[in-house]
Design a protein that fits this description.
Helix content: 55-70%
CATH class of the largest domain: Mainly Alpha
Order of helices and strands: EHEHEEHHHHHH
Distance between the termini: 47 Å
Number of helices: 8
Strand content: 5-15%
Radius of gyration: 17 Å
CATH topology of the largest domain: Glutathione S-transferase Yfyf (Class Pi), Chain A, domain 2
Shape: globular
Number of domains: 2
Largest sheet: 4 strands, mixed
Strand order of the largest sheet: 2-1-3-4
């Protein structure tokens, strides 16, 4: 594995952070990981705000260049180090990868966050309408996967690595994937074939699942 002089500020339970970890593993590169405690406000220090005024994780620092937003970081790493065609150069294939990445960011993960995080962090009851919107998004993904082995064609791409971080989070939150056999089949395949999946994603998922269980135990009291 090639060790790079790049810092990645991250939290292991975060789905966007796990996207970058998955991409780095697939590219066989090692980043200098800097776990960031958001509850302690480590992302609000003057030093961090100089790197990222939006004070979000993940944040990548490559020399005097810093970048945030997980899909942007993923594209940057692939453009710089990809020898495995994770971000295909064919314009039409790359456009489909971009579409899946944008769908994940703007629709699937956004709808999951809109439904689930107000319950965990705001103490609000589950909203059936928001759950329906999340299920609609899962239905879109089910349709995208028809006739494809992976999210785009027959090869693992950035799209799969981004989407699997989100889908595994949705699954860990207890949203059923049973109505979506195509997603279930794809999910199993990516877990088996994404390089370093266990270390890059599953470890963080275990922490997220523990948080969900703790939240549910409190709400059932």
């Amino acid at each position: 594995m090639l060790k790079l002089a790049m810092d990645l500020y991250y939290t292991a339970g975060s789905a966007p952070c796990r996207v970058v970890l998955l991409v780095a593993a697939a590219l066989d590169i090692q980043l200098n990981l800097k776990e960031t405690n958001l509850r302690a406000g480590e992302h609000l220090t003057p030093q961090f705000l100089k790197l990222n005024p939006q004070h979000t994780v993940p944040t990548l620092v490559d020399g005097d260049f810093s970048l945030w937003e997980s899909r942007a970081i993923s594209r940057y790493l692939a453009n710089k180090y990809d020898t495995k065609d994770l971000y295909p150069k064919d314009p039409k294939t790359r456009a489909l990868v971009d579409q899946r990445l944008d769908f994940d960011l703007g629709t699937l993960y956004a709808r999951f966050g809109g439904y689930f995080y107000p319950q965990v962090f705001g103490g609000l009851p589950a909203d059936e309408e928001l759950l329906n919107k999340l299920e609609d998004a899962l239905g879109f993904l089910e349709t995208f996967l028809e006739g494809h082995k992976y999210a785009v064609g027959d090869s693992l791409t950035l799209a799969d690595l981004s989407l699997v971080a989100t889908v595994s989070t949705i699954d860990a939150a207890g949203v059923s994937l049973e109505p979506y056999p195509g997603i279930q089949k794809w999910f199993k395949l990516v877990k088996e074939t994404a390089p370093g999946y266990e270390e890059a994603n599953e470890k963080g998922i275990k922490g997220f699942r523990a948080m969900v269980q703790n939240f549910r135990a409190k709400t059932e009291l």
